[in-house]
Amino acid sequence: MSCCVWQELEYCQAVVLSVSDEVGVRTVMDNLMDSTKSDNVDVRRSSITLLCAFCRHTHADYSQYVPQLLRGLIHLFTDSNKEVLQMAWEALNAVTKTLDSNQQTAHVSDIRQAVRFAVSDLKGQDLLPGFCLPKGITPILPLFREAILNGLPEVKEQAAQGLGEVIRLTSAEALQPSVVQITGPLIRILGDRFNWNVKAAVLETLALLLAKV
């Protein structure tokens, strides 16, 4: 981006971060999320930059928009522009860091839905570009970990299956730094007394991970 564009983005960022009321947050979310879907890469890049800044620095409560953000940001993981991919990753990282343990567990289904939505637009690719960034899946791993370790049995099963879906879409190189973080909770669950379907989901995910790395 040129210096002029960056300066304009800084002005816009100051305006966006001044928003604190409920109506203003809704306006910011609706407009920026809509702009990230533009066919114009410059518009996508600018809007995701502002959205990332908002999610990272705002003191306003945007918790009700988390499902919408998860879907929109993970869909941007299909983008062909590296800057858009990186800013979408940083925005997702900022969003997931705001979640407490109960919220993490509750949003596992939103993550799975978001990944499936993104996959539908992959157009024949086997991997999700955003997951293949360095530490690409790091922002969502705490959600799966919390659900696997402390969720109800059906949530554990869903989290294990969702983690397997993510592994399928991630390159071996991008998975390497997270192998221990992934395998720890899965192996721990195998030693506990849970229904066979939970353990089957865990074993399948472990097998996928081993096959990849």
Automatic annotation (TrEMBL):
It comes from the Eukaryota. HEAT repeats lie at residues 140-178. Residues 7-135 form the Stalled ribosome sensor GCN1-like HEAT repeats region domain. InterPro entries: ARM-like (IPR011989), ARM-type_fold (IPR016024), HEAT_GCN1 (IPR057546), HEAT_type_2 (IPR021133). The keyword Ribonucleoprotein does not apply. The keyword Protein biosynthesis does not apply. Keywords: Repeat. PANTHER family: STALLED RIBOSOME SENSOR GCN1, TRANSLATIONAL ACTIVATOR GCN1-RELATED. This is Stalled ribosome sensor GCN1-like HEAT repeats region domain-containing protein.
